[in-house]
Specification:
78% of the residues lie in helices and 0% in strands.
Length: 130
């Protein structure tokens, strides 16, 4: 399987309509400062990571429980197989959401830390450099 590396910009274009993706990229690139990614945006990204992790974990547990019980009970195999396929798809989707949200959070955090380290106002203790 190929290892596909996707940047934050690529993910914006893959998830949003082109006009909205262009606008989001313009806003993120325009400032070049920590002010364009505020702490509330980062907290929301962190919340999404935690939320999708819990959803993925419960979906995987549900799938594993179904898989174990399937080995014991074959009476309603047709219905249980369809249920298992649905649970497997749901578990994969939830895991994918978790991984995407975690990747976005990491990218936003990295961008915020880089912009803070490059901001001359913050490096001079909040005083204007003259």
């Amino acid at each position: 399987m190929k290892n596909i590396t996707e940047t934050l910009w690529d993910r914006l274009f893959n998830r949003l309509p082109q006009s909205e993706a262009n606008e989001a990229i313009r806003i993120l690139k325009q400032g070049g400062s920590y002010k364009d990614i505020d702490i509330f945006t980062l907290k929301e990204a962190e919340y999404q990571v935690v939320h999708h992790r819990q959803m993925a974990k419960s979906a995987i547990i549900a799938y594993r429980q179904w898989k174990k019980s399937r080995q014991v009970r074959r009476l309603f195999s047709v219905f249980r197989d369809r249920e298992g396929a649905a649970l497997r798809i749901h578990a994969r989707n939830m895991a994918s959401l978790f991984l995407d949200s975690r990747r976005d959070f990491a990218d936003l955090s990295k961008r915020l830390m880089q912009s803070i380290s490059n901001d001359t106002e913050l490096q001079n203790g909040g005083r204007n450099a003259k």
